[in-house]
Amino acid sequence: MKIIALEIWPIKIPYKKSYSTSRGTISHGDHVVIKLITDEGITGAGEASFIHADRAGETIETVTEILHKRLGPILMGFDPFDVELIMKTAR
């Protein structure tokens, strides 16, 4: 089994109620939803969310770009269950 495609959706999910911190008012959550597709038609999904992105330096835009341009191409052809090899290669 090999990974043949990666679909990526950056989404903003509005909160029912905004809240405020010393850094400002927060009215939505930023998330990136990821779908892996294998040559056997098996799919898997994952998600990344961003809390206090201003502190960590990552944003929905930077993570989406990294997935599209860097990590996505690395994953192609790997067995999705060979996590150790994927992690070793991705570093």
UniProtKB/TrEMBL annotation:
Q: Which domain of life is it from?
A: Bacteria
Against InterPro entries, the record matches this protein to:
Enolase-like_N, Mandelate_racemase_N_dom
Residues making up the signal peptide according to the UniProt record: none
Q: Where is the Mandelate racemase/muconate lactonizing enzyme N-terminal domain?
A: 18-89
Pfam families associated with the record: MR_MLE_N (PF02746)
Instruction: Write the protein's name.
Output: Mandelate racemase/muconate lactonizing enzyme N-terminal domain-containing protein
Write down the species.
Limnofasciculus baicalensis BBK-W-15
